[in-house]
């Protein structure tokens, strides 16, 4: 474990529940804290930590990967994502995990991660006439209000 990887892991261990970071967001956060870790080192480190099962690599709707700490059961969760505004909701469903564990056991595999990402359109986008009536830069008010710090 290099000092840079320890700093990266520390960020993920202290993220508020429900937060996910891209490599770029992680780099920006570390720079704001005065940490000098190159973006290429961050990319390599989060990829390695995801392969090791320390981080979860998430495919959300923004076109790039996000990462979060890989929490064991009972903190295991899945995601519902609006592909229009990127609003992400976490949810638990133990049957998904149980089915995955059963299938892994049957095949002799070791489960490292189990994630379901449900791609959706939020109710506000539908009310606004998604997809044809929405301007390309539209973002729902729920996503805007939730991105502002409290």
Return the structural class.
alpha+beta
CATH-scheme architecture of the largest domain: 2-Layer Sandwich
The CATH homologous superfamily name of the largest domain equals Ferric-uptake regulator, C-terminal dimerisarion domain
Strand content: 15-25%
Overall tally of domains: 2
- In one word, what is the shape? flat
Tell me how many strands there are. 5
- The residue-averaged pLDDT reads 83
Provide an overview of this structure.
This protein has helices at 3-13, 23-32, 39-51, 94-107, 123-127, 141-147; strands at 55-59, 65-69, 78-82, 88-91, 117-120. The protein is 40% helix and 15% strand. The protein folds into two domains: 1-70, Winged helix-like DNA-binding domain superfamily/Winged helix DNA-binding domain (Arc Repressor Mutant, subunit A, Orthogonal Bundle), CATH 1.10.10; 74-150, Dna Ligase, domain 1, CATH 3.30.1490.190. It is α+β, with helices and mostly antiparallel strands. The strands form two sheets. Strands 4-3-5 form a three-stranded mixed beta sheet, with no helix packed on it. A two-stranded antiparallel sheet has the order 1-2. Helix 2 (23-32) crosses helix 3. It is built from six helices and five strands, in the order αααββββαβαα.
Outline the fold blueprint.
Elements (H helix, E strand, L loop, with lengths): L2 H11 L9 H10 L6 H13 L3 E5 L5 E5 L8 E5 L5 E4 L2 H14 L9 E4 L2 H5 L13 H7 L3
Parallel strand pairs: 3-5
Antiparallel strand pairs: 1-2, 3-4
């Amino acid at each position: 474990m290099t000092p840079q990887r320890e700093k990266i892991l520390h960020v993920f261990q202290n993220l508020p529940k429900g937060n996910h970071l891209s490599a770029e967001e992680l780099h920006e956060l570390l720079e704001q804290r005065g940490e000098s870790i190159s973006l290429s080192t961050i990319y390599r480190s989060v990829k390695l930590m995801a392969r090791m099962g320390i981080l979860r690599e998430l495919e959300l709707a923004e076109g790039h990967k996000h990462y979060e700490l890989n929490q064991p059961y009972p903190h295991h969760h899945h995601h519902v994502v609006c592909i229009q505004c990127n609003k992400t909701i976490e949810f638990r469903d133990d049957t998904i995990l149980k089915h995955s564990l059963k299938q892994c056991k049957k095949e002799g595999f070791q489960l490292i991660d189990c994630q379901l990402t449900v791609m959706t359109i939020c109710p506000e986008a539908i009310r606004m006439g998604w997809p044809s009536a929405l301007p390309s830069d539209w973002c729902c008010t729920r996503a805007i209000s939730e991105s502002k710090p409290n």
